[in-house]
Structure formats: C-alpha cells, structure tokens
Amino acid sequence: MPESSSFASDARRVSNRVVVAGIAAIIGILLIAAVVLFMTLPDANAFNARVEQIFVENDGLTSGAEIKLLEILAQSGTAFADTLTSYRMVIFVLLVFATALLVAALVFLLTIIGLNRRMGEIERAGIQVNSLLISREERTVYLNNMEFSLTEAAIETLSALAEARMDEEVLSGSELEGLISGRDPADCDEAAGATRIKRLRDALGNQMMSELLVKTIARRGYMLSIDKDVIRMI
Question: Is residue 171 within 8 Å of residue 165, measured between CB atoms?
C-alpha cells in the first residue's frame, strides 16, 4: 500500500509539472506571437506624419482647393490612426481569448488522460474493499463505510457469491441459480444466474463499483473480486 501511494504521489507531481510546463509554453508562444504582430503593425501616427511632411514640403500650396485637399488628407490620417488603434485592441482581446481557450483545453485534456489512467489502474487492481458485512436478516450490506439496502433476491445472490469466494470458487450462472433455488445446476438456465447478477449490480447502484466488485470471468462464471478475509456474514 505505501508503494502504490508513493507511485500515485509521484504521478500527481509529474502531471502537475506537465500542466504547468504546458500552460507556460502556450502563454510564451502566444506572447511571442503578440510581440511580433504588434511590432510589424504600422505606427498609428505614420499617416499623420506623412501628411505633415507634405504640408512642410509644399508650403507653396496656397489655393483654396489645395489647402482643402491637405485638410482632407490630415483628417484621413487621424481616422486611420483611430482605426489602427481599435484594431490593436481587438487583436489583443483575441489573443487573450485564444490563450484562455488553449489553457483550458490543455487542462481538460490532461484531466481526461489522468482519469483514464486512474480508471485503468482501478480496473487492473480491482476495487479496494477493507470490509464486507452481509446481514441477511436486515437485507443490508456494509461495504467499507457504505450501507446498501438490497432486495431479498439481491442479498441471496451476494451471499452465494460471498460463500463461494470464501471457498475460492467461481460460480457459473447455472450453479448460482441452483445454489439459490436449491435445484440441481444441470436443471438451471445459465441466463437465470446472469439475470441475478445484473439485478445485484443494479441494486448496488454505482456502476463502476458494482462491475468491479462482482467480477465476470470469461467462460467460467462470476466471483467477488475481494480478499476473502474481509468477508463477514451474519
């Protein structure tokens, strides 16, 4: 148990480092892209400076039409500067939004990968049960610190599986049905036992827990995937 705990802690630390490195890389790349983009954009006052230079170089333009043309050029330069400034703000907002989306996508992706890895570990190791107390009279099951109230049929199915597990036996569907009904397994249908297993899993509620607790062994049957020493029946 300490070894698995240490392994889990190391895995979490590695995952955290990967997340931090990934987020830093995304922010760094977008920051570099933003700097290059803003540096390559023309200066907002470049057009105004050019119009001012035209005024200075052509001080001989004195007619009303020429002066009017220069005024129009100056107004156009101001409008261009305002437009370029608004474009810069739009580009900045889009970059911030893109950074947030990429960081969120990275976090979600790593979370999903971590959950899938954890699910794989659980499936390989089986559910960790420290105690399983079955009370037939109360039709109640205490699994670790969780209490389940089952139907009479479900408690009989679980009791049969528990007894078989303590004897280190695997029950086929027909054997399970025969053990509960008191008939010869040869006279019982395999599907009847499978139906009892399904109803037991449904009664336990949590699909992942019930699937791992009541294990299906291909071409052999069913068994409880827990240590037989933790089973108690009253």
Answer: no
